[in-house]
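If you are new to this repository, start here. Below is one unmodified record pulled from the training split, so you can see the exact layout before writing a loader.
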Amino acid sequence: MDISRPASMLLVAALSCSTVAADISVTIRSDFPGGNVTVLKNEGSRVQITPDLRGSQPWFYWHFEATASQPGRVTFTFPAAQRVGVRGPAYSTDDGKTWRWLGADHTQHAAPPGNGEASQRESFFYDFTAEHLKIRLAVAIPYLQSDLDLFLKEHAANEHLKQVPLSKTRNGTPVEVLQVGEPGPKVKAMILTARHHACESMASYVMEGWLAEAISDSAAGVEFRKRHVLFAVPFVDKDGVQAGDQGKNRAPHDHNRDYGPMPLYPEIAAIQNLGEAQRVQYSLDLHCPALRGDIHEAFHFLGLGLPHIKDNVNEFIGWIKEERPQLVMAPVNILADPNKPNAVNPAINSHHFALRKESIFAATLEVPYTQPNVPLDADLARSYGRGLLRAWVRAKFNSMEASDTRGENDNASLLAFRTSFLKAYRSQPTEVEAAAQKYLDDSSSPAIFRVEAHNLLSVLRLNQKKYAESTAFCTAARNDPQATTLQRTTAMLQQLQIVALDPMATTEQVASALKDFQQVRYPSLEQQAKSFDIASNYYATKNDHQMAITLARKQIAAAASYEQGKVLNRIAGWHDLQKQSDQAISVRQEAVALLRKQLQPAPQRSVFGAMMVTELFDAVCALPTSTLEEKRAAGEQVLNHDVVAIGVKERVKKSLAELK
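And here is the target side for that same chain:
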């Protein structure tokens, strides 16, 4: 049932807004499922708000609706730090049905601690564009009972998904458990949980993706149901989710500190009983960490690092790297050392299940609310959940008793094959070809190694300029139904590389290959940058410098920071070839400004730093407006950098000697 709160506060005031001539007033409400806000002051164009803690310790969850009397900018301010995420707030213009990130450019984050109380305030602004415009704003993209209901309605006809009662909360609210698959003699039970802390909504989208893949007819879904019967609890703290509570650190303790002989919450007792009744050996608990900063912006595993569980988490992570949306990072393993003092806490879900007899896998996956360089949203989180399920099916988990039952076909073996081939294919082509060919000749070889062999032999044939053979291997990898997400994306990018280098290929074929790659869902930023790099270089060889410039500009948006100056210098060179001197000067000025900013306060002592100081020198020297002092200063940065190659330093010394 829905649990609603009365509006936290309805205050209307007026203050002249800089974007409109007349006064603007704003109405704030949170009396809807998931709503949470306390209004401290409402002055029309400026509204001061804070989370409604409701018995929890200070945390950051808020979610409210704002209606403006007329168009204009409204600034929402918090009196404390860590109240707005790295991509700003989430906002919805359709009553919470769909959500987007407002953006960091709309947000003022707190300064580092120690700069005074005022510097710890945080704020964001929203530009209302019409009279009585109503929007919803939240610290993160919400996931409520209505969202789960939509998912269940969409899959109501799926025979692999059942909804069964788990328990009732202390308020009498039914808590559901979703069952995927059926028990059997060779089927092992798994528990998947989310929302032990009510506000951790992004974890629910990951769970939804996992469930969607598990009940599908994909190879991974079918295999998962052969091995497991899954019991998924979407809302452990269901009352808290609907009420809009923080949930984290609720007094006397929250749901994830309630496992043990005398649980406070009936739903925790029911989960424990389910674990006993089904002899659960696998458990994954989904959470979200703090709002931003450091590890909190990364996917990571927490839990009790018993040796076999830590090893199994690492195996899982290896396959997540293969199957995740490549735009998003794989998790890191920071399970606690069980031998350290106070490391073991049986009241925590993941510890409780790790300590069970015959437990094979038990961990917490922390899902960031979003990430600064990746637009992590609901759809991307669902895609991540699907990738987790595919990775789970590929993983080979060891029990506590078994030292190693994986054999030679685990993730580490795949990675070793890939790495050794790519290191040696130029210097030892015959040897690496034989190593790859054995997987194609042996019909009993695992499919994943067959796909990898096709991809790697495509690389070898391209290096040998055997374009037709390279394409054939690449196509085989791309079309293999057993290919991982990474293998398929790699093959798509390889196909673009082949046609761009093949002297017999046409411009239409290159454009088609680039378009095909752009249909890939969520390639990594590195893969995106590489695709534009390949295509822009191709068009430059065809003297279509304007198209090359257009594609290189797109490359900059995805490129690593240390590559951006290099790309700008290349763009400037293409303007020179078109005798567009003004544009070339403008781009080099852009490169100089960017590189100087990146090199402050001092260049990195790394290959990347060496690259950037060299690019800065080249950009400065190519600018007709640069002074002798600027050229010499840029040159000294190159000469004083101990990672810059000797040959580059000799070139710079010669250039400096010729300066007048």
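Two things worth knowing about this chain: Confidence is low (pLDDT under 50) at residues 1-21. Residues 15-138 form a domain with the Immunoglobulin-like fold (CATH 2.60.40.3120).
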